[in-house]
Amino acid sequence: xxxxxxxxxxxxxxxxxxxxxxxxxxxxxxxxxxxxxxxxxxxxxxxxxxxxxxxxxxxxxxxxxxxxxxxxxxxxxxxxxxxxxxxxxxxxxxxxxxxxxxxxxxxxxxxxxxxxxxxxxxxxxxxxxxxxxxxxxxxxxxxxxxxxxxxxxxxxxxxxxxxxxxxxxxxxxxxxxxxxxxxxxx
Length: 186
Hints:
By secondary structure, the protein is of the alpha/beta class. The chain has helices at about 15-25, 40-55, 65-75, 95-100, 130-140, 165-170, and strands spanning about 5, 30, 60-65, 80-90, 120, 145. It is globular and about 35 Å long.
């Protein structure tokens, strides 16, 4: 089963756990946006939907503004192709939009059940979203919730490189492969 890696604003820099995931996992593919510096929700959704059409039943592993992108995708028909999503350190697009209009298209944050299995991973000292808001969104989105304690924005700056627990979380969302071939009676 395919894993789609979905970075946020500015992409995931070299050394980021998402980039390392791509290097370690042959089934992982990057959802590469045309312009990481100027996020436009409609354009980013189009790119993500095209990648989902190529790789249906994928597990999405998103970071920061990428989590917000996935939450907006949940209301669209292509969400039916998502096996699950790990949403790591979601960004507060509402606060970001109030400080910089380039993020306006990502606000407001969706407040409905995502409709697919998901896990929000948050930190108590993330500068891009308060812990309380991340926990509340997980509840509204119908997501599981993982508290990483004091892990900053769960990125290179916060000391995250390879992150094996991320693989464990993503694997927990994978649907078991079933063999529907008829079985011979013994």
